[in-house]
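Q: Study each token:
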Amino acid sequence: MDYNAAKLFLAVVQAGSLSSASEKTGVPISTLSRKMNELEQGLRVQLLDRTSQGVKPTYKGQQFFEQARMGLELLDDAKKSVQSDHKLQGKLRISIPPNFPLWWDLLTAFQRQYPDIQVFCHASERVVDLFEDGIDVALRMGDLHTDNIIAKKIMSVEPCLVASPKLIELCGFPTTLAELVSFPIATWEGINNGTFEWQFGTEKITFEPIFSTNNVEGLFHYSLNNMGVSQLLDILVAPYLDSGELVQLLPDLHAEALPIHLVYARHKHPSTIVRAYIDFCINWINNRTLK
């Protein structure tokens, strides 16, 4: 079997069309088409359904894709290990939640340790499809709702209520969650949110915010500029609490902790680069927690 043809087949399936695959690989469409035909003839099975909208793998093609991808990744790892003087080289494609600045510090530290690894980082509210989007490892917050992944829990975070010292001076220090209804509140809102509420254990309030956004940086800006109380993750607000720029409200109230996992596709053998990234994340978070 032609090794290069198999690699091009993976690129065609991931791109969804010969034209898109041609743009990504730099291989002419005519060459891609010929290579796909030769691969099918060599295997004596149809691998692709071709339509005017593009191509998609047949049932047999999907089976070949999954098995070939695992094998080619192992071959690529072996090739890199003998050609790179034991240095990890290649590209890592990851996904993280938006507005998670802790990870920028982690990624810069990771690339200082592994300077020959190129990193593509996709930050979005959307839960990416590891297969369709070609993501190696995703960082996911909260409960996981799929069995098609392998997940490694690396930490837990907890929401906490914060405000600036000046806002507390103006509005007073609340002693119960219910009192916050009379405070200006800046809160997170997705595109389809309709009701605003905070819950800490058995206590819960419903409120109307003066400002809402799906951008954590915006919430920090409002909090730091004395504009409102916000609920933000403890790991993100810790530096501001230490500096005194923000103050935690109702510290005895505790919301449900949110687990954070690193996940990768169950059917995909983790490459050397993926394993190095996961191990680095776990060690980096553990060292940070111990400080």
Summary: The radius of gyration is 24 Å. The CA atoms of residues 145 and 270 lie 21 Å apart. The chain has a mean pLDDT of 86.
